[in-house]
Give the backbone structure.
Amino acid sequence: MRYQRFMILFPHSLVRYLAALVPVIALLDASGQTARAAEAPHAHRFAIGEDEYDQGYGCILYRTKLPAGPEASLEAAAIHDVGQVFLDGERIGFTDRRSRNFRVQLPARTQAATLDILVEAMGRVNFGVEVHDRKGIHGPVTLAAGGKAPVNLRGWQIFRLPLDLPMLGGLEFQRANSSGGSTGAPGFWRATVNVDQPGDCFLDMRLWGKGFAWVNGHNLGSCWNFGPQQTMYVPAPWLEAGDNEIIILAFSSPTIWSSNDAATWLGTRTAPEAHRPSEALP
């Protein structure tokens, strides 16, 4: 038996729509004031895990106000699994459970600022001492500045972002500008793709970094440029003859506006060289 090189079969319209005509909706607006949650935020004195809100997957957003002050160190007991820290909508840093890094250095603030911590759950440990794998922030969350003792941060708004169909159905998209409109902030991107004849195909996610993808409401799974898998399988039964909706949640804005990027991103029907076998296998 010979090994056959697989083909990535994309409708040509997919290149055009995803490269240049993608509406976008941000999880945070420019001032960090709006979260795209399916419900009103929960108020809590301290930051607590998402399991306390009967949410076992997706993302959760924690928000509080910080007073003006000098450069400071923000730290949590733990954040499961990946956290992004924002001040007034601008990303300041990341936390990562793999490296047990739960500290981010914040810049000086000349006035009060909105602190957002967006946490992504990435599956659960099912063995060993961490089998009870609680997602979200494990408090306390503290702020330390000027050599003083850390102060517990209180007065949180907590937004559930389960990434389920009710939440996706409630998103209101707007057209991105021609320059990309990218601030690097996480956001939802949508394209409508016209397919003449549905068939099995793959989405090439090389320029999307880390995130999730849905086709016609079906969750394809998560993508991450950290690993070797850069394509996502789309089975033919999930496609329809005519218009098909693709939604991508990107945790950082992709750069796909130049014609060169568009050509290299989805312009080829064959698998990228890096993902092909060097020779036929027996």
